[in-house]
UniProtKB/TrEMBL annotation:
It comes from Lichenibacterium minor. SUPFAM superfamilies: Periplasmic binding protein-like II. Pfam families: SBP_bac_11. One of its GO terms (biological process) is molybdate ion transport. This is ABC transporter substrate-binding protein. Keywords: Signal.
Length: 256
């Protein structure tokens, strides 16, 4: 058993009581935490005996798979793993339990190009600006990272006017898939959503001066059928043993 997985499995045994409930736990999760979650989940299920059903979707927006839309349709859910600010909104709306929110990770924005294409240097603000101005087409997500790029980043770089007509927001589909198909020269999304996509090259994170970290948090659904099993899953995802898995999948662990 690899060292990292062994450490995570041991953490699961500590966090999950020996008298496991063997519940059916429903989870709604947005893409930025999905790779980390997928790597950690087998150890939790093995230790707890719980069976976890996962429903992915964006943290916000009006696409049918978006978590707020799923909840509005009455889909079953115990645990919400999503952008922290969006989870705050669900708490205010009565869709998530007040006081149940736990910050899990910070998710930085990165850039992808099609595999085999030249990889622009974006290590400084000036080089990032130059790469954007040289690109014929730019894509970004319809979630938190894309909202930042469209509403703030281009303006901070002083190129908002120049990007009109060549930059577009991509609903529902991972941006790196658009880049891999050659439908955009540059793609921007959270690093954790870029790395799993085949057919692209990861060009790097945005420079620190213009970086925007999205906080991913977890909470309990207001209509949870198995809230205690849900809290055990959240505690496991937030445990120190999960940190190496987060880092490998493009996230930075949230500070306590």
């Amino acid at each position: 058993m690899p060292h990292t997985f062994r450490a995570v499995a041991l953490a699961a045994l500590v966090l999950v009581p020996a008298a496991a409930r063997a519940e059916d736990v429903d989870v709604m999760i947005s893409g930025g935490f999905k790779s980390t979650y997928g790597a950690l989940l087998p150890a939790f299920e093995a230790a707890s005996g719980d069976r976890v059903t996962t429903r992915p979707g964006p943290s916000m927006g009006t696409t049918p798979d978006a978590i707020p839309q799923r909840l509005a349709r009455g889909e079953p859910d115990d645990v919400l793993i999503m952008v922290g600010s969006a989870l705050d909104g669900l708490v205010r709306d009565g869709a998530a339990v007040p006081g149940s929110k736990v910050d899990l990770a910070l998710s930085p924005i990165g850039m992808a190009v099609k595999a085999g294409a030249p990889v622009p240097d974006i290590s400084t603000v000036d080089k990032l600006r130059a790469a954007l101005l040289a690109a014929k087409s730019v894509a970004y997500s319809d979630s938190a990272s894309g909202v930042y790029i469209e509403n703030e980043l281009f303006t901070r770089l002083g190129i908002a006017a120049e990007m009109k007509g060549r930059a577009r927001m991509i609903p529902a589909t991972p941006v790196a898939e658009i880049v891999a198909r050659g439908e955009a020269e540059l793609g921007f999304q959270q690093v954790a959503e870029i790395l799993p996509v085949p057919g692209i090259t990861f060009a790097g994170r945005l420079p620190a001066e213009v970086q925007k970290n999205t906080v991913f948090s977890a909470g309990i659904s207001a209509k949870a059928r198995h809230p205690e099993a849900g809290r055990a899953l959240i505690a496991f995802m937030a445990s120190p043993a999960a940190a190496p898995v987060m880092e490998r999948t493009g996230l930075d662990p949230a500070k306590p």
